[in-house]
Design brief:
This is Ketosteroid isomerase homolog. A hairpin with a 5-residue loop joins strand 8 and strand 9. It is built from four helices and ten strands; from the N terminus they run ββαααββαββββββ. It is of the alpha+beta class. The strands form two sheets. Strands 1, 2, 3, 4, 5, 8, 9 and 10 form an eight-stranded mixed sheet that branches. It has one domain: Roll (Nuclear Transport Factor 2, Chain: A), CATH 3.10.450.
């Protein structure tokens, strides 16, 4: 599987849940089973992990079966703010709703892998999430800052903005030998407002440079 060495999301992503607030306590996405005594921990500089990111929720006390994929109307609903986009991604990660996750990405969106390679486009992102979910991930995301910038002013409104979403995360998942492993690190995601006013992911980076 992909060796994404994180210290998710999330996005952020992308990860699962009961509704919560964006800047409250760390959000948990994924299973809710207690950690195995064999759980190992590492930081951003070592170990193997898989994609994760995205905030806004606290995991339920029981592990639910994956929810059915969102219907067409739900997929078209869209996020009206960057914070809402993060929350939607978290919900769909909890449900392991790959179609719903893809609906929150621009067609040429990208995920940055641990080695700096780029997972680009819907087909590659879909394959990434399908494989990652096999590791039973639990992602906790702490979004610290959302900054909107750019865009075009039309009258008294600015449209077409981009936003950076930055924070920290921890990720627990099955390692290659089946034992639970955990990681922690920083993330920096980029989202963009579409012509219809909704927001989509354009880049999910769980490995930004940091000291």
């Amino acid at each position: 599987m992909h060796e994404i060495k994180r210290t998710l999301p999330i996005v952020a992503c992308g990860i699962l849940l009961a509704a919560g607030t964006l800047f409250g306590a760390s959000s948990a996405y994924g299973q809710t089973d207690t950690k195995s005594p064999q759980t190992a921990h590492t930081n951003h500089s070592a170990g193997h992990a898989a994609h994760a990111r995205v905030p806004g929720f606290v995991a339920p006390t029981t592990t639910a079966a994956p929810a059915p994929a969102a219907n067409a109307a739900a997929l078209q609903a869209g996020a009206q703010t960057p914070a809402e986009l993060i929350n939607l991604l978290g919900q769909r990660i909890v449900a392991k709703d790959v179609d719903g996750i893809i609906a929150l990405q621009e067609r040429e969106a990208a995920i940055i892998d641990w080695d700096g390679s780029v997972i680009r486009g819907h087909a590659a992102i879909r394959a990434f999430y399908v494989e990652w979910f096999e590791s039973d991930p639990i992602l906790q995301v702490n979004p610290l800052q959302i900054v909107e910038a750019g865009g075009t002013r039309v009258g008294n409104k600015v449209i077409g903005r981009s936003a950076s979403v930055m924070g920290t995360y921890t990720l627990e998942q099955d390692g290659p030998d089946g034992t639970r492993v955990s990681f922690s690190g920083n993330f920096c995601d980029i989202v963009r407002q579409q012509v219809n006013g909704t927001w989509l992911y354009i880049q999910d980076n769980p490995y930004p440079p940091h000291s």
